[in-house]
Amino acid sequence: MIESNEILESLESKERPRIFDETKKYKNLPKVVIAGRPNVGKSTLFNRLLQKRRAITDSTPGVTRDPIEEDCFINGHPVRLIDTGGFKLERKIGTAEAILDELVVEKTLDSLKSADLILLLLEAGTITAEDEEFIALLRPYWNKVIAAVNKTEGGRREEEAYNFYQYGFDELIFISAEHGDRIEDLSEMIVKKLDFSKVKEGEEEKRIRIAIIGKPNTGKSTLANRLTHSTASIVSDYAGTTRDFVESDFDYRDKKFHIIDTAGIRKKSKVHENIEYYSVNRAIKSLDNADIVFHIIDAQEGLAEQDKKIVSLAYERGLGVIFVLNKWDTQEQGRKAFKAAEQNMKIMFGQMSYAPVVALSALEGKGIKDLLNTALEVYEQLTRSIETGILNTALNDWVQTYPPPASKSSQFKVRYIVQTSVNPVSFLLFCTRPEVVSQSYLTFLKNRIRNDLGYDKIPIQLELKASRKKWEAYTKNRNNSRG
């Protein structure tokens, strides 16, 4: 018999873990929108109801900009929970921040229109003009509003909280999102006010998960909106507009895609705010739940050293990467110009010369089909599995073409090869004396795997393991055990 578990061990836990989300089985979930002025604790309540840290929370007003959506269970019932940006009246007219605030408010008001339930979050204490203005805006939706007064932990400031009754609320609930006070009561109120008759249960849909990453202001959100035919992400010339990642879905050629639009990743030395620090961390973490990365590069600015650092994060995880040259409409057109830009990319990312390059204009919608067709090719390669027999027939041909060194000091014998995982694609090569196998020989084998087995657009991992047993012996033992 072959050495104990030699093959089985090589096949264990090589695929990146996939977190199964039970809520993804349900369709037509009722939408619960958390809304209110800035800094009342909306994101804290959002995280509390989700029972995980999804939204970035900070004492700085206006942290949340894009609406953040997440499916969850509230008292055993599946709902879509939406955290919105704060309704802000005070603005410095003429500033970029003021324009951005206007976009945030517009997004919040759009979310209210599609909501099945609006969870209005207020703060115990002095009632502000923003509170009054926002309450007035909610009058058309009054029958689907629950009003909760936050930051009343342990009965603190409850007397002041009662002042909100003057605006005609039939009922107020006093809570503490941070400490969890009366969250169970709030959950009961939410469930009682919702209609779950249209919710349908089915199988979780398989989606190709794309993370859009890059430096700030390269057009990530514009591309995300173009792909999803929506305005899910706020688009602005203001650097750092996207703070938390924004998720959206769309279909293309009968395939389902899940897009993660992330915050722009800047050099560590230029990240000064706590909020941006968390934003960058979230962008990096989004890679753990992606299959393919669209790395966006501004064709006007070209490549920078920071692009290398961003892409290395995806490379280390074995993700498929597509380099997207955005704003290509601003550049010299023609095949020659693209070839020069592509060659530049391959020089910059030498170890990733396999990665496809696509030029497009997210703003004008040019090149989108090429990008999605390339993504389908990359995903097919990421999920392709090669039979072990075919692998070893190919390995035999490769070794015949390029035999291992014959000198005693560097001599080794190649025994057999198995594929240990897909997405990321990984192989395990069994040989004698793996410590003397040169990098050049490993590169030769990787290139043969790519060119001969159809993995020319993705990264592959090839590991070595010592073995004295030949592939023929393994095959014979395996067949005997089946018999």
Question: What's the structural blueprint in terms of helices and strands?
Answer:
Layout: H1 6-10, E1 26-27, E2 31-35, H2 42-50, E3 68-74, E4 77-83, H3 96-114, E5 117-123, H4 129-137, E6 145-150, H5 158-161, E7 172-174, H6 183-193, E8 200-201, E9 208-214, H7 220-228, E10 246-252, E11 255-261, H8 274-285, E12 292-298, H9 305-316, E13 320-326, H10 335-348, E14 357-359, H11 368-382, H12 388-401, E15 414-421, E16 425-431, H13 439-453, E17 460-466, H14 471-482
Parallel strand pairs: 2-4, 2-5, 5-6, 6-7, 9-11, 9-12, 12-13, 13-14, 16-17
Antiparallel strand pairs: 1-8, 3-4, 10-11, 15-16
Structure explained in plain terms:
The protein has about 475 residues and is an alpha/beta fold. It is about 35% helix and about 20% strand. The protein is built from 14 helices and 17 strands. It has helices at about 5-10, 40-50, 95-115, 130-135, 160, 185-195, 220-230, 275-285, 305-315, 335-350, 370-380, 390-400, 440-455, 470-480; strands at about 25, 30-35, 70-75, 75-85, 115-125, 145-150, 170-175, 200, 210-215, 245-250, 255-260, 290-300, 320-325, 355-360, 415-420, 425-430, 460-465. The strands form 4 sheets. The protein has a 6-stranded mixed sheet, sandwiched between helices. Strand 13, helix 10 and strand 14 (about 355-360) form a beta-alpha-beta unit. It is elongated. The two termini are about 15 Å apart. Mean pLDDT is about 80; it is low at about 1-20, about 55-65, about 235-245 and about 265-280.
